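Translate structure to sequence.
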């Protein structure tokens, strides 16, 4: 049982990174394929996050292939993160708030 817990703890999924700073994600997975700053309700260059309010700034990040999966990540500044989650995440510029992944070959 201990071995199973150790192995499952090593698996990285986008959801396992929630609350982590952008710098940690980039350190583990390299530079993303897309990194687009945006603002809810005013910018259509990136998907509109579900948890944010109109006017909230965010950073849309996408990796095209992480272990055969396409990752779509939404990072927010500490002030927005605290407003939504009720906790101050720290001093970094961006923290992961929303994450989703799809098969890398899936076409929308």
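Result:
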């Amino acid at each position: 049982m201990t071995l199973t817990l150790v192995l499952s703890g090593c698996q990285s999924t986008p959801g396992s990174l929630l609350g982590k700073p952008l710098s940690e994600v980039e350190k583990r997975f390299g530079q993303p394929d897309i990194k687009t700053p945006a603002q809810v309700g005013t910018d259509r260059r990136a998907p509109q996050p579900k948890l944010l309010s109109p006017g909230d700034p965010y950073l849309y990040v996408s990796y095209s292939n992480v272990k055969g999966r396409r990752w779509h990540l939404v990072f927010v500044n500490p002030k927005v993160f605290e407003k939504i989650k009720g906790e101050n995440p720290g001093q970094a510029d961006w923290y992961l708030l929303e994450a989703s992944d799809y098969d890398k070959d899936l076409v929308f």
